[in-house]
Design brief:
Blueprint (H helix, E strand, L loop, with lengths): L17 E8 L4 E6 L5 E2 L2 E3 L5 H13 L7 E8 L8 E9 L2 H6 L12 E6 H9 L8 H9 L12 E3 L3 E4 L1 H5 L6 H7 L5 H15 L7 H10 L7 H8 L9 H11 L7 H15 L6 E2 L1 H14 L6 H15 L18 E2 H9 L16 H11 L13 H6 L6 E4 L4 E3 L6 H11 L11 E3 L10 H14 L4 E3 L7 H6 L2 H9 L1 H15 L5 E4 L3 E4 L25 H4 L1 H8 L1 E2 L7 H9 L3 E3 L7 E3 L1 H10 L4 E4 L19
Helix pairs in contact: 6-10, 6-11, 7-8, 9-10, 9-11, 11-14, 12-13, 20-21
EC number: 3.1.3.16
Family: Belongs to the PPP phosphatase family.
Protein name: Serine/threonine-protein phosphatase
Length: 649
């Protein structure tokens, strides 16, 4: 696999020292956490590369609370080894105790404009909920909470870091290169046969993704997997597999263990083979109960089938699953007790390991594998310079740049000058726009473009149009933004013209392949955009409040999203909804609107909803916005402005 397009040279991009703030109100037991759509919830922090810690504290509290607050205590200093020729990274964690009367007076920013971060007060039970949902940047935040409150301290194991006194925590070279308490999984890591320099390259990538944390949450692990080009549908299972201590976070050696499991050409023997066998069991043990139930065992059989590159019917697969139980976990087990294992019953870890060790159940060595070696990734990092420092905006996969892979929800945009929608394969139109609006090229014009979907179907040049837009997105990722429309759906294109156009232009085999690849990019596209935190933009219309109480719920829509009609009613509303035709409304429609918070069935389209002005006003008020810009309906004048009466205070 070619990593060269994912990894580019970038000078002096390394993590630097930070100051973090644990800001709490003891009276109501609440903590101030920061949140960014691309990250989990985390302690507010600020870089202090060329500043003192005191200045860092002042700048941090001013940024996150609009007030300059002095710290009460220094509760932790994290010293993190990078490599022998670089200084340790420092994260100084200060405690700020806020009286309840002062907290009430604080006016937190809705959104920090420079970073798009949000800040909010959260109670202990809410933070526990975030931890359960794996939405904290790292479970190590529990350590800081226990240090601040004096509760029973949550310990960080010695194999992760050393303590000096009561404050200083150190991650040393020994913790990174060779942990002192060797686990069975470390024998698996040793099979990679990596040099010290190779390990350091990988370790720097780990730091770049998760620092200032020393452990990696699921979301940060997903970012690392994207950089290594591992399939997105494997990430959650890989994270569960590597999290053997159930911390809901991974340390570097655990990430290395996952890399060893995924290495495509490795031959495992002895303890390493058993370690991988146990980890494969964890990969498929979705409910983490130490047993494979019928569904989990079936998923294992499907994965083994896929390695043979053969497709089977559901009935054939059921027979294979039954055969797997009967031959390997029924007749092959020695004891009379184990002979009672029936089809559909659960498979324990010890039985799984035993049967694989006896070669009674074969094929697991071929599953859960990457498409390329980790050594290829290391070589690409080395060739790019900076020993593996990856460029955040240097990915040139079409899907990546068009949609910022992994985020199909709301795209936040600033200072958009022009929006357009429903180009529908009209390549001459976009050429006309080019001559008028960016004759010298988009990169040399001050405007930014936000396009609201329906790029294909109807017109004769859907392929050329989408190729042009994708190329512009690659060339100018911060100047052009693409939102998905209802024609960026396979079933719609089959009934219209885009699939036929691809086959006509490229032939049956290549045409369908190109059509599928373009739609794979569509599957990752954002469903909406918010301009300057005030203007909501989408293809269809605002979603129903029972599907989307707040605009941030759009970020929870699955990604990739191949079948919105089956996978997300919220996405379907954004793609298909229309404003109701005000005027002579039928009485039945008026009643339906009144009974459903301003929404009714969209009978004109036969799907989704229509919404009235009251529903629009409520949506804008709840989300603190002022306007809605949409496409989806042709306007003879090119644009139509509808004035909606604002509710009186």
């Amino acid at each position: 696999m070619d990593f060269s397009k994912k990894i580019l040279p970038e000078a002096n991009v390394v993590p630097c020292d930070v100051v973090s703030a644990l800001i709490r109100c003891p009276t109501d037991k609440s903590y101030l956490l920061a949140y960014h759509p691309n990250n989990d919830y985390y302690l507010p922090y600020i870089q202090v590369k060329d500043r003192s810690w005191a200045e860092g504290c002042r700048n941090l509290t001013t940024k996150y609370t609009r007030e300059e607050i002095l710290p009460n205590n220094l509760i932790r200093i994290n010293r993190i080894w990078q490599c022998d020729n670089l200084p340790y990274l420092l994260n100084a964690v200060f405690e700020f105790i806020i009286p309840i009367e002062y907290k009430i007076k604080l006016k937190l920013p809705d959104v920090i404009s420079s970073t798009k971060e949000k800040v909010m007060w959260m109670k202990v039970n809410e933070i526990q909920r975030l931890l359960q949902l794996e939405m904290l940047s790292s479970s190590e935040l529990k350590v800081y909470f226990s240090l601040a409150t004096g509760d029973q301290e949550v310990k960080i194991p010695k194999e992760i870091a050393d303590f000096t006194g009561n404050i200083v925590l150190e991650v040393t070279k020994g913790h990174v290169m060779a942990p002192r308490s060797l686990h069975m999984n470390d024998s698996l890591v040793q099979t990679l046969a990596l040099s010290e320099n190779d390990v350091i390259i990988l370790y720097k990538e780990f730091l770049k993704v998760c620092f200032p944390n020393i452990m990696m949450s699921l979301k940060f692990f997903r970012k690392l997997c994207h950089k290594m080009m591992w399939p997105d549908n494997m990430v959650t299972s890989l994270f569960r597999m590597g999290d053997v201590w159930e911390r809901k976070a991974l340390v570097f050696r655990e990430v290395m263990t996952i890399m060893a499991v995924m290495e495509p050409e490795l031959v495992y023997t002895g303890i390493a083979a058993e370690a991988r066998c146990r980890l494969i069991f964890r990969y498929f043990d979705a409910d983490k109960d130490g047993k494979l139930n019928a569904t989990e065992f079936k998923n294992l059989m499907i994965a083994m089938r896929e390695t043979k590159r053969s497709m089977v019917s559901a009935s054939t697969l059921e027979k294979e699953v039954e055969k797997g139980y009967q031959l390997n976990f029924h007749l092959s087990l020695f004891s009379c007790r184990e002979l009672s294992l029936a089809v559909g019953s659960e498979v324990a870890l010890k039985d799984f390991v035993l049967q694989i060790g006896l070669l009674k159940f074969r094929g697991t060595s071929l599953i859960v594998k990457a498409n390329s070696s980790i050594k290829d990734f290391i070589k690409a990092c080395t060739a790019a310079g900076n020993q593996g420092i990856l460029r955040d905006l240097g990915e040139y996969s079409l899907a990546w740049h068009t949609v910022k892979v992994g985020k199909a929800g709301v795209k936040e945009v600033t200072a958009i000058i022009r929006t357009d929608g429903d180009l529908h394969g009209n390549f001459p139109d976009i050429c006309c726009f080019e001559r008028i609006f960016w004759g010298l090229g988009i990169h040399l014009t001050p405007i930014r473009m936000l396009l609201l979907g329906d790029y294909v179907d109807r017109g004769s040049y859907g392929v050329e149009l989408i190729a042009y837009l994708f190329a512009q997105k690659v060339r100018n990722p911060k100047k052009i933004f693409l939102v998905r429309g209802n024609h960026e759906l396979r079933e719609i294109q089959k009934n219209f013209t885009f699939q036929t156009e691809c086959v006509r232009k490229f032939g049956e085999e290549q045409g369908l392949a190109i059509w599928q690849e373009i739609n794979r990019a569509f599957d990752y596209m954002p469903l909406a955009a918010v301009v300057d935190d005030k203007i909501f933009c989408c293809h269809g219309g605002i979603p129903a409040p029972w599907l989307c109480p707040h605009v941030e719920f759009i970020n929870k829509v699955p990604c990739p999203l191949a079948n919105p009609d089956e996978e997300s009613s919220l996405a379907w509303d954004l793609l298909w909804n229309d404003p109701v035709r005000e005027g002579n409304l039928e009485e039945s429609l008026l009643e339906e609107l009144q009974e459903n918070e301003g929404f009714a069935v969209n009978r004109r389209r036969g799907t989704a909803h229509v919404f009235d002005s009251g529903a629009l006003n409520r949506f804008l008020a709840v989300n603190r916005m002022t306007y809605l810009i949409r496409a989806h309906e042709v306007q003879q004048a090119g644009v139509q402005l509808i004035k909606v009466e604002q509710p009186k205070n």
